[in-house]
Amino acid sequence: MTTEVGQAVSANPLMERYSASDLRVFSSEEADRYLDGVIADPQRNASLAWELLYRLEPDLYERLVAAEHLHPGIIEWLPPHVPRIIEVGAGTGRLTLELVARGDQLTAVEPAAPLRDRLRLKLSALPSPSGGG
């Protein structure tokens, strides 16, 4: 049984997708944050592999999360209207776009620049609250 579990873990396609040479995508600040005190090998560190996916292949990330439906309870839990919403780890905006109409002020925080750029583009395409574009 242990062998099967080991094979399943080592067969993680995302982790096999990246190598240590891909770490160059991190700024020095990000490297300090993501690489300090961890295994700096995306083939052995799933969290690191995900961080690389966000930065190197935002299109693939968006396709992966598009297949996951948000749990209806996430939106149902919120009152119909709140003064302020803060979303941390907004990604490309899957939940953010649902939250826009629920609050007077929405702050979406996304640390990965490529995902943040996509989120910004999606939000800019929404009609403004005053009815403009």
Structural notes for this entry:
With 133 residues, this protein is mainly α. It folds into 2 domains: 2-56, no CATH class; 72-124, no CATH class. The protein has 8 helices and 2 strands, in the order H-H-H-H-H-H-E-H-E-H. The chain has helices at residues 2-10, 13-17, 28-35, 46-56, 58-66, 72-77, 96-99, 113-124, and strands at residues 82-88, 103-109. Strands 1-2 form a two-stranded parallel ribbon. Strand 1, helix 7 and strand 2 (103-109) form a beta-alpha-beta unit.
Distinctive features:
133 residues; mainly alpha; 2 strands
Structural class: mainly alpha
Radius of gyration from the alpha-carbon trace, in angstroms? 18 Å
Lateral arrangement of strands in the main beta sheet: 1-2
Helix content: 40-55%
Poorly predicted sequence stretches spanning 5 or more consecutive residues: 1-11
Structural topology:
Elements lengths: L1 H9 L2 H5 L10 H8 L10 H11 L1 H9 L5 H6 L4 E7 L7 H4 L3 E7 L3 H12 L9
Parallel strand pairs: 1-2
Short characterization:
The chain has 133 residues and is mainly α.
